[in-house]
Amino acid sequence: MDRATTYLWVPAYVSAVLETDHHRLPARISEVEAAIRTRLAQEPGPDENELEAIRHVQRALPGLIL
After folding, report:
1. What does the DSSP 8-state code read for residue 22?
2. Which of 13, 25, 57, 58 has the fewest CB atoms within 10 Å, i.e. the most exposed one?
3. Is the distance from CB of 15 to CB of 31 less than 8 angstroms?
4. Residue 39: partners with Cβ closer than 8 Å, 6 or more residues away
5. Is 45 exposed, middle or buried (0-12, 13-18, 19+ CB in 10 A)?
6. pLDDT in tens, 37-48
7. d(Cα 47, Cα 56) in Å, to the nearest integer?
8. Greatest CA span in the chain, whole angstroms?
């Protein structure tokens, strides 16, 4: 990802990563998942760089609930 590139779902992901209230974390994660689903449904779809970033985030999300 280019440093100047910010994907539309990134703010939701950052909010989830920075959430300190474990009771609110599942809702934050749901927001990220919804934002990613919305982005994947858009035309034009994400390019390969964004798809790679999405896959990385999808693998990382379960680790937030530890």
Report:
1. T
2. 58
3. yes
4. 7, 8, 9, 46, 50, 54
5. exposed
6. 999 999 999 999
7. 14
8. 36
